[in-house]
Amino acid sequence: MSQAPESIEAPSPAPANENRRGFLFAAGSTLMAIGGVLVAAPIIGAAVAPGLLPEKDQWISLGAAANWMPGTTVLVKFLNPGGAPDDGITRENACYVRCIEAGKFQVFAVNCAHLGCPVEWFAQSRLFMCPCHGGVYYEDGSRASGPPPRGLFEFSWRIQDGTLEIFSGRLPGLQEGT
Ligand code: FES
Q: Does 110 contact ligand 1 (Cβ within 6 A)?
């Protein structure tokens, strides 16, 4: 008569298999985490970045309103508010400020309404002239002659606490219909 065999223990998995499984699990988890970050980063960036970047359109100070002499037109440079500090000279912008009388202004974009060349102010003839194709504008910015289809584009302006400010960022242009 044969005896019942003693209980047999199941063979334990080989240590090499355990190591390989652990490595694959860790590698898979890491790749999934990286993939999650890559997918989420642009979404988070788009949600957070607008609050961190400077506003493109904002009121910019051009100095004390009392500094302009009535009857004069002056070229004024300012920094584009939407730019970054390392934009260098490309961040510089300019406008012509015409002081009609104390507290009353017109502020023109320097760019010709034809193809955008910078116009120049000639105080003696009281005209803006464009060097590219001969466009001419009167001192109030209206078109005098040449190819420009309209007068110079104007910035909105206001006097805030005695300071002349213009609303800038994007240049005034045909897309605004101004
Ligand atoms: S760009 Fe000024 S006239 Fe053409």
A: no
